[in-house]
Amino acid sequence: MVCEPVFNEIALSWIPVDVKATVPTNAVEAKPGLYIIRARHESDIIPGKWSGTTPEASVSYGGEEFSVIEFEVLCNTSVFRHRPP
């Protein structure tokens, strides 16, 4: 019996988070309970983290950490399992 590898193809999207919203069920976790976000700080859009338990996320910029309330969380918007041709 020959085992064929199975590949996962994942589509990722940045989804805006409302300060009153809960964590989207398909949010990507950097580790359990810590979600990947991006936010604008000054003139840049930079990655950051969000615990999902508060309305604020944080980003690092210029060696300092800043709280942000307007941000997008990285979400897995589709998962397909397929075998290579």
Give an overview of the whole structure.
This protein has 85 residues and is mainly β. Strands 1, 2, 3, 4, 5, 6 and 7 form a seven-stranded antiparallel beta sheet that branches. It has strands spanning 7-17, 29-31, 34-41, 44-50, 57-61, 64-68, 71-82. The chain is elongated. It has one domain. It has no helices and seven strands. It comes from Echinostoma caproni. This is DUF3421 domain-containing protein.
- Cα-atom Rg, whole angstroms? 16 Å
DSSP helix count?
0
N-to-C CA distance: 18 Å
Helix content: under 10%
Based on CA inertia axes, which overall geometry fits? elongated
Poorly predicted sequence stretches spanning 5 or more consecutive residues:
none
Number of strands: 7
Strand content: over 45%
Class of secondary structure makeup: mainly beta
Count of discrete structural domains: 1
Largest sheet: 7 strands, antiparallel
SSE diagram, text form:
Elements: E1 7-17, E2 29-31, E3 34-41, E4 44-50, E5 57-61, E6 64-68, E7 71-82
Antiparallel strand pairs: 1-7, 2-3, 3-4, 3-7, 4-5, 5-6
Protein name: DUF3421 domain-containing protein
Pfam families: DM9 (PF11901)
InterPro entries: DM9_repeat
A few lines on this structure:
With 85 residues, the protein is mainly beta.
Keywords, please?
DM9_repeat; mainly beta; 85 residues; DUF3421 domain-containing protein; 60% strand; single chain
